[in-house]
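This part of the workshop introduces the protein records we will be handling. Backbone structure tokens are a discrete shorthand for how the chain folds in space. Once this layout is familiar, the rest of the handout is easier to follow. The record below serves as our worked example for the rest of this section.
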Amino acid sequence: MGRRLSVVFDSSALLAITFEEEGAEVAARALNDGIISAVNAAEVITRYVDLGASEDDARASLSAFGLEIRPFDEALAITAGLMRTSTRKLGLSLGDRACMALAIREQARVLTADRAWATLDLGVEVALIR
């Protein structure tokens, strides 16, 4: 399964690095300890494509982060789906819940720009980049 790491990246943290937004430095410092869900990787690729990146450029941009992309398997799907009730009031998307589900399984902290996540009590440490 790979090395055990301590940070699960939300797509917002990678996009902050890409676009040199506030918190980009915080996110960049955590890259060596990070992993990302395949769902969140798809969100990042989608953003690149929306901005006109070619397929090759989008792949290269994601790959440059050096993060291990973890599959969104049956167990993660169930965990993310069951989170719907407790996260609905904050409007968490499937991508958000996929990220949280991976962090729960890996017993890792989540790195995000989404301040609303800090109010959740899902047994996961949420680290805000800004």
In short: The domain at 7-128 is CATH 3.40.50.1010 (Rossmann fold). The first helix runs from residue 11 to 18. The radius of gyration is 14 Å. The chain has one domain: 7-128.
